[in-house]
Amino acid sequence: TVERVLFVKVMTDEQMEVLRSQIAVYATISEQLIEMHKFVNAHQDSLAGMRLGGIYVDPLTASGGRKLTARQRWIPTSIQLQMLETILNQGNGTPSKQKIKHITIELSQHGQISESNVYNWFQNRRARSKQKQKMAALPSNYESEIETNEDSPNEKKLRPDKNVPVNISSDPIYSVQISAEVYLLNQTQGIYQSSGSSKSCGSLDQMSYESFLSTPRLDPLMDKF
Amino acid sequence: TVERVLFVKVMTDEQMEVLRSQIAVYATISEQLIEMHKFVNAHQDSLAGMRLGGIYVDPLTASGGRKLTARQRWIPTSIQLQMLETILNQGNGTPSKQKIKHITIELSQHGQISESNVYNWFQNRRARSKQKQKMAALPSNYESEIETNEDSPNEKKLRPDKNVPVNISSDPIYSVQISAEVYLLNQTQGIYQSSGSSKSCGSLDQMSYESFLSTPRLDPLMDKF
DNA sequence: GTTGTATGAATGAAGG
DNA sequence: CCTTCATTCATACAAC
Q: Where would one find the signal peptide in this protein (chains A, B) (predicted)?
């Protein structure tokens, strides 16, 4: 077997460990990025697959004036809204399956609509009406929301409306997660130091990219083959 | 130097070629995904929050305002989602009690989760998938959109858009495939199919995913180290 | 073009 | 299973 040594290339344990780590890093990054991208698509591209896949052409700019916009979400016609509110106020707080279908058919005479649209509308309406009532505990502040009857459609209620949505939209979290992941992988392998020029990132999004960029490169190792 | 041979591991040219290909594939995929993600962000990242559970900000650290927005409902981590979908699609439409427990344990590796979360997820998922499926044929209603401007002259413009239902796409094929793939990567399995051509597709998302799918497995090779 | 708000839609959870 | 509620996400529109 001694002779055979001459016909194979060799690598040390250290090299192999390095290689293994590098592959692991790439695998992890790929996985995370794919997952991330999938997530983005799933949530922001849910209905009108017009992004990413290629060129996103803004439909609004395409036609000088009217529609042609494949809209992503249903917007009730004014008459539909009227009818919906009327139905809502005609008692029957229970839309129920059967009624939904019927209502949908009726409303479809006045614009595109689907059963789920109707269903969602009632759901949201009720939920939000209830939600509004729930605001009365403000310690020291303004008016208490008077039960506004929604009978009059066609009007936009622009109220001060102490909503306080808060909304901690955790945008950058995924970046942090990935960064952490890469960091740990670097720790594990403990061989490479990130090559310099790590300019401080201003955005968290960029941070993830930067982490990737500071990931150990493969090329130097490849040269050893 | 003969003795030294005993202290190094060897790999054949073929193995090295394979390795090199794999690394190249990962590098390519990573870069492309990053490009895609940048693209997404650049076009509509106004404040697009990706919801990712598992980490929540301590409400006490919030601004001087109030509101104790602690998250009150489980939000699956993306990786958890991946795994769940994978499991769902691996046949086995019936997650029995025992399985639930096992799945929960596995998923708890990637974020907070409880058995009821898993149970509910499967319930909801199945139900809604079925529900969506029910919307198919229905030549539906052609609406008469003539009426749109006459009904309520006294209000803001509600565009009577035509809003073609587009597609369902609640469960894109590629997502499933990716999920499966990622899941499989965690297992160690045989079968190694080369090709290692990296294919370097354009920046179409599905293409990238396909590239990823055709990526040679690492695990079998790693086993040789 | 930026920000705030209203609201359609998605989804986790609870009850039967 | 199925239905319903509660909460959250994402987007259209308005005001600045």
A: none
